[in-house]
Amino acid sequence: MAGPGYVDPNLTSQVLNQINSQGLRGTHAGKGKTGTGGNAVRDEGKTPHQPPPQTGTKGEADDTFQTSVTPLIGGENIFPTARNMIKNARDSIALEMYQFGNAQLEGKDKIAGVTGAQHFQDHQALVQELVDAAKRGVKVQVLMDSSKTKSGEIQNKEVGEYLQANGVEVLRYPKSKANIDHVKLLVVDNNKAMIGGMNWGSHSPVNHDANVLIQGREAAELKKEIFDKDARFSGGTPTDTRLDPNRENKIDVLTTAPVEEEGGSDSIKNAILNNINSAKKSVHAELFSLTHKDVVQSLKDAHNRGVDVKVLLDPNLYIINRKAFYDLKKSGVPIRWYTPDVQKEEKLHAKWASIDGEKTIIGSANWSASGLEAGKPGKRTNHESDVLIRDNQVSNTFNDQFMRDWETKSSERVPPHMQFS
Length: 421
Known about the structure:
- α2 packs parallel to α3 (about 120-125).
- The radius of gyration is 20 Å and the shape is globular.
- Helices cover about 30% and strands about 20% of the residues.
- Strands 5, 9, 10, 11, 12, 13, 14, 15, 16 and 17 form a ten-stranded mixed β-sheet that branches. Strands 1-8-7-6-2-3-4 form a seven-stranded mixed β-sheet, with helices on both faces.
- It is an alpha/beta fold.
């Protein structure tokens, strides 16, 4: 199903060519007029995929370097892009990641269905790319969750120890009974950022998930509003992040933060509810987890006022998702289970929604109480990061992906042979 936001099969090669040829400086908008989705139209005669020559010094963005957003759907797009962002870093790398694994360091000889894929090799290379960046003088800071795994070891133990032993500054988000650091964010040189639902865990490449690549003036906001605050909360000293006063208003940075961190935040929940409640045409969401009562009610209310509401849920979490599933189904809301590849142990790990073909909410937050509520001291709350993107083309890309999944990868019944977690 093609449309204004169709994911071109050559998306990866286009993004990687841009990374390699210009250090991932992004799509330059020049001084053209604003077109569909808020992207600026280039001057006549210029090829859409050929930005003007670079100017400025190391680490500085051009005066014309406006914000561009590229959807990255699937590991085949996410991991090569992340690897090349790190490879081309010139000044700084700020990485905040809930799960960061490496099969070799963890002694895992096989991960079902993924070890032969090229994007798995790109995933495996991420650890060494960070080390190589530090060795060539890039300031590399990595912030990891400090919770314990089922075996009792600290999360990401092997990768954290290897990075620290090889010159990378590793910070741990403070552990308490109340929170984990569930963020998945990479910011390079303060002018390019990747954010979304994809972890960098050893098994993550097999999951159906999505990120966005943000290039331009607004990328620095993600570092300042998420990584810098979290690094200070974790006892670190982040590099200075300055915001461009002329930045666009294409992106809102959203967070869920426990009250222990600067009083907490529930701006992701507010954005989700406000945008569902104000939707006029459509709300299409792909979700790993849906349990938040207010969100479920808002979806029902939107459906009742004539909005085209469709929801796709992960069946691996059937026990968790079933209440919302049957509540919405009983209310007439079209809702289905994603059909995962059970041989690969695939999950629908995404957490995004396309709204009215105009806006997209995407990030790390599950649509659950622990993902959306700041809570009270001692109450379980995840630290999360999302973005609200105002861009028609981006929203249509995610909407088209949703419709392909809805039509070819979904079922009204729980898929057979599931091993529920």
